[in-house]
Amino acid sequence: DSGVTQTPKHLITATGQRVTLRCSPRSGDLSVYWYQQSLDQGLQFLIQYYNGEERAKGNILERFSAQQFPDLHSELNLSSLELGDSALYFCASSVELGTGSPLHFGNGTRLTVT
Amino acid sequence: LAKTTQPISMDSYEGQEVNITCSHNNIATNDYITWYQQFPSQGPRFIIQGYKTKVTNEVASLFIPADRKSSTLSLPRVSLSDTAVYYCLVGDVYNFNKFYFGSGTKLNVKP
Question: Is the pLDDT of residue B94 over 70?
Fold first, then answer.
C-alpha cells in the first residue's frame, strides 16, 4: 500500500460530461502529480502541485484542470469529455520537490467515456 | 532533457537474474536515476534510486558506471510475479525529467 488514495476507482460517463477525480497524498507529502495512461500507452504527465501551488505542467488539455487544497488533497477536473479521454488516471505524491524524492502512486481511477 | 532509452521487452525464466539497462547519455550533474515497476492496471511502484556506483535494497540492485551515461537494474532470481513493465527515469525537479516516463521495458518471466 503506497498510502496514496484515489477515488473513485471506476467512473463511467458520457461524452460531453464533466467529472472530478480525487487524490489524497501520503501523510507528510507536499507534492502531488497527475498522470494519464491510455490503453497500452505510457504514462503521460499532466500536472504537478506543491503545497497548494502549481509547479509544473505537462501534456494537460485545456479541458482539464486541477488544484491542490490546503489539506493537500488534490482534484483533477475533466470537462467536455471525449471518447479519447478514456484512460487510467493516476495520482502520485512525494515528500518534497528536491532532488531524489521518489514518487508514490495510487492505484488510479479508471475513466470510461461512452 | 536527459532522454532515456530502454529495451522494449525482455524474456526470462524463473530463478534467473535479469539485468535491464537504461541509456541516458545526456544525464546532468544533479540528476538521480530512479526505477519503477508497474503491473497492469496498477500505479507504478518505486523500486530503487541511485546517483553513482552501486545501490542495493531488498528487491534489486542498481549499477551505475563512473560516467553515469547508463544504469543497470538487476533483479535477482526472478519469479513469475516479477512480470511487469520497468521504467527508468532520470532527472530532478529543476529540469522536470523526473516527471516523464518513457515506454519502459516489458519483462516477461516464464516458468
Answer: no
Contacts of A110 (CB under 8 A, 6+ apart): A9, A10, A11, A87, A88, A89, B41
d(CA B80, CA B101): 24
- B95 at interface of A, judged by CB pairs closer than 8 A: no
Torsion of CA B74, B79, B82, B86, to 10 degrees: 30
Beta-carbon pairs below 8 A across chains A and B: 58
CB contact at 8 A, A35 and A47? no
Integer Cα distance of B1 and B17 in angstroms: 31
- CB-based contact (8 Å) between A110 and chain B? yes
Mean pLDDT for chain B? 89
Grid cell digits, residue B56: 542495493
Where do we find the cell 529543476?
B94
Q: How confident is the model at residue B26 (pLDDT cuts 50, 70, 90)?
A: confident
